[in-house]
Specification:
alpha/beta; eight-stranded parallel beta barrel; single chain; two-stranded antiparallel sheet; globular
Length: 358
């Protein structure tokens, strides 16, 4: 690893649902102790369990540095509400929020809402991309200095620095502006799994972090190159995207057993992205893939979170740190800073400034 290309690591803290916030808090603090970039918490309308956004909002004030990235389903939800909820998470975490966009493909999930039938994956991912687009526009709709808070005059905001987004999507429209002030990061980090073909285009257009499920560095590099080409075609800087290999890990041994409900194998990823071995073996795999240049790091899903995350942090991460391959402290306070991403300016502020200078 060179100084210009740091290794990034993230971990999933979900599993069989728990209804005690302390369970998730202890895992998030463990990941923070290992200086992981962020933790994710999976969510789906197809399974029971607490709301990931609500859980990580509870965890946010009790952690200091680790990024918090809930899965947010864009199907059957209101884009305006998604934007507001993620912006709120960014505020309560003081700039450590992201969100992982996902879609609902089954008729059973559609029946939970009764508003429309299930749709093909291509249409759902188009809608997900539009949700990511309008969310970014809503986060930009308050300029950074829109809040005045002048008690003497009774003015809370400068209305000239609030903007309508007037967005028309294929299945929804949003006028705006947002009801939440611009988040500390400007725009919270957007994460999309770009492995499947339908998700490639929204990942290229809107993602900051792209997850890739692959069995070899060559497979991962092929997906990365495809997403980069698409991003460049949309006028984005491909170097501004971060690519993480998604891997389900089982660091158990003969003396330990998975949590109840996970005895049959990994639940979060296919066998094509499943690793079983020891913490040292995992460190070797991470090192080899990262040095190949195929990915910027790994998103690890422990098959048994309470057991395997501890082994990742105290075993794998400690070894990578000892070899000077992974940091020992956070470089900043926000998730964007952890990932080496710049804070974007509001598009509306840039347009207004350009208009004033014309």
């Amino acid at each position: 690893m060179t100084a210009n290309r740091p290794l990034h690591l993230a971990a999933e803290i979900g599993g069989p649902p728990h209804y005690d916030a302390g369970h998730y808090l202890s895992l998030a603090r463990l990941a923070e102790r290992g200086t992981l970039d962020f933790v994710t918490l999976g969510d789906s309308f197809a399974r029971p369990g607490p709301d990931a956004l609500a859980v990580l909002s509870r965890i946010a004030p009790a952690t200091d540095r680790v990024g918090l990235v809930p899965t947010v389903t864009t199907t059957h939800t209101e884009p305006f509400h998604v934007s507001s909820a993620v912006a709120t998470l960014d505020w309560v975490s003081r700039g450590r929020a992201g969100w992982s966009a996902e879609v609902s493909t089954t008729e059973a999930e559609a029946r939970l809402f009764g508003r429309r039938s299930a749709a093909p994956a291509a249409a759902l991912w188009q809608e997900a991309g539009e949700t990511a687009d309008v969310a970014a526009r809503l986060w930009d709709s308050w300029e950074d200095d829109a809040e005045i808070r002048d008690t003497a005059t009774g003015r809370f905001i400068d209305r000239d620095r609030l903007h309508y987004v007037d967005f028309e999507g294929s299945t929804f429209s949003v006028r705006g502006p947002a009801i939440v002030p611009r988040p500390p990061q400007g725009r919270p980090v957007t994460v999309i799994d770009g492995t499947g073909a339908p998700a490639r285009e929204p990942a290229a257009r809107h993602a900051d972090v792209v997850h890739i499920r692959a069995t070899t560095p060559e497979q991962a590099a092929a997906v990365r190159d495809d997403v980069r080409r698409r991003a460049a075609a949309h006028g984005r800087d491909p170097a501004a995207l971060r690519f993480l290999a998604a891997l389900t890990v089982d660091l158990g041994d003969a003396e330990t057993t998975p949590e109840p409900g996970l005895e049959s194998g990994p639940r979060f990823a296919g066998r094509d992205s499943y690793f079983r071995g020891g913490p040292v073996d995992l460190a070797e795999l991470i090192t080899r893939w990262h040095r190949s240049g195929a990915v910027d790091g790994f998103h690890l899903t422990p098959i048994t979170p309470a057991r395997d995350l501890e082994r990742i942090v105290n075993g794998t991460v400690a070894l990578l740190q000892h070899r000077s391959l992974f940091r020992t402290f956070y470089p900043g306070g926000t998730l964007r800073e952890h990932l080496g991403l710049t804070r974007p300016a509001s598009r509306y502020a840039l347009a207004r400034t350009a208009g004033e200078g014309a």
